[in-house]
Amino acid sequence: MTFELHHQYLQHIWDKKTYASQNKHRSPIPDGILASESLFSVQAFATKKANTKEKTFALIAIKRLEDELFAYRDAIKHRHEQYKLNWGDITLTPYKPTVLNCDFDEKKLNSASAALIKIFQTTDNLLIDITRARRSGEFSHEAYQEYYQSEITHLRALIQRVTKICLSFHQKRKELIAELSHEKERTS
Which of 122, 104, 111, 107 is nearest to 34 (CA)? Predict the structure, then answer.
């Protein structure tokens, strides 16, 4: 499946492979696809039928992750509303952004990964209006760069945090399983 964005840089943040660098060294920064699939994995453990310590741990982790995702999206919407209150007419100069399709595996879609996709779409909507405002004379090119870079920096930091939490979850989950196995062996 796909969803639409309108900024190549956002598309690259979603999927690093879309604009593979000529530099042969892969960037250590995770992309949106990795973060989305990581979220899917944690939520899959949280929705297992059996009530285990592993499931309880996953429920705690996914709650923390979803709270952060929802808060982040609300913050973007709030910033967007505040900017629009301060800007004049941003439709003065016509701007029709190019549609870019971003792929994702629909089999790995759940509420957590969908929330991340919606963050990309919300960020994209804000960046479209920042571009419209710049083209309509609301602020300088330097201010435009600051607005744009600030949003990109926040998004990259979110992706890194989410991915790190998910990876940490799996590491701790494996330690928990090993500990439970050792405990079970000792009692047998």
Answer: 104
**Which parts of the chain sit beneath pLDDT 70?**
19-27, 188
Report pLDDT for 20: 62
Tokens read off for 149: 């870079």
d(CA 66, CA 109): 14
Is the torsion defined by CA of 68, 75, 132, 135 positive or negative?
negative
Strand partners, 3: 102
The predicted pLDDT at position 167 comes to 95
CB atoms within 10 A of CB 124: 22
Contacts 24+ apart (CB under 8 A), 165-170: 165/61, 165/64, 165/65, 166/35, 166/38, 166/39, 166/41, 166/42, 166/61, 166/65, 167/38, 169/42, 169/57, 169/58, 169/61, 170/41, 170/42
**Residue owning tokens 């996914």:** 62
Taking the C-alpha atoms of residue 183 and residue 185, their distance in angstroms, rounded to an integer, is 5
